[in-house]
Write a structure and sequence with these properties.
The longest helix is centred in the C-terminal third of the chain and has 28 residues. The chain is α+β, with helices and mostly antiparallel strands and 288 residues long. It folds into 3 domains: 148 residues, no CATH class; 66 residues, no CATH class; 59 residues, no CATH class.
Length: 288
């Protein structure tokens, strides 16, 4: 019997698709599975699923690597695109960061589901999680755990703890849709045309309008035309500069001002309301 292996395509933040291959170090066919997309969505799981307590080797497309995660992900010291994943006793969804080798910048994420081997993962184990969630949600939402849990929101009730509110706001700002929306706003904002009056050298005028003709006859600060100029007999002098109305493209419009106001409000709301909550849960991080 061969060792199970699975391949999955991962979409990075910029839309690039790379391949992740996972190899099980156990010969059991249940140690590594790739579930159907609809089934994974129904149960709130990742498609690529491994078992707790087992070990796995991985290979990701070059020039990318998976960020090291203490006690779980150990990249190879020889080839950064390979390494081992050992979920140990952690059960839930592992959200792993994909880095570019040279810059070490986060380019995307890949989720791997760690299933329990002790009981039925989709029945008994999740039944137990639901009971725990009703009494002590924070126990399942410990930020120090590398495994994530999926919750269903009851919109008829208010959040009972600050961390629930913090995690909800955090999930909004980390959502790919929000990141893509901000990127779209920055790279392609709404533009409008505005008319502005500016003073321009008469020698640079290309199109003559009725307003310019009036200024040719009445504007001060004039200079004499040469004797050989064809207009000398009709217009002995012309102004050195005249005022014209020019159209300029601008991003200062109601649409962009509204978006700026909304993003600024979100920013200050997060700082004012959730900074204290954040440092309560991460006391080892200096607040300054």
């Amino acid at each position: 019997m061969t060792f199970p292996q699975e391949h999955i395509l991962v979409s990075l933040l910029d839309g690039t698709e790379i391949e992740l291959t996972l190899f099980s170090e156990s010969r059991s066919k249940d140690s590594l599975v790739l579930v159907d997309t609809l089934i994974a969505a129904e149960y709130g799981e990742a498609r690529l699923q491994i078992m707790e307590g087992l070990a796995y080797e991985y290979q990701i497309s070059s020039p990318y690597q998976i960020r090291e995660l203490s006690r779980v992900v150990t990249p190879s010291k020889v080839n950064k695109t390979t390494g081992r994943i050992t979920p140990n006793i952690f059960v839930g969804t592992l959200k792993l960061e994909i880095l570019e080798n040279e810059s070490s910048e986060v380019k995307g994420y890949v989720s791997i589901e760690v299933r329990s081997v002790k009981t039925s993962y989709r029945e008994d184990y999740r039944f137990m999680l639901e009971d725990i969630t009703e009494k002590c949600t924070e126990l399942l939402m410990q930020y120090s755990s590398p495994a994530l849990q999926t919750f269903s929101v009851d919109f008829s009730n208010d959040s009972k703890i600050d961390y629930q509110r913090f995690a909800f706001v955090k999930s909004l700002f980390e959502a790919p849709e929000f990141v893509e929306a901000v990127h779209r706003i920055v790279t392609a904002p709404v533009t409008t045309w505005s008319e502005q009056e500016e003073e321009k050298d008469i020698r640079k005028i290309r199109r003559i309008s009725h307003a310019i003709i009036k200024q040719l006859a009445s504007t001060s600060n004039r200079y004499e035309l040469s004797k050989n100029h064809p207009l000398k007999t009709r217009l002995p002098s012309v102004p050195s500069k005249i005022n014209i109305r020019a159209k300029n493209e601008t991003v200062d419009n109601p649409e962009n001002r509204f978006i700026k106001h909304a993003l600024t409000t979100f920013y200050h709301l997060f700082l004012r309301k959730y900074t204290r909550t954040f440092f309560n849960y991460f006391p080892y991080i200096p607040s300054n």
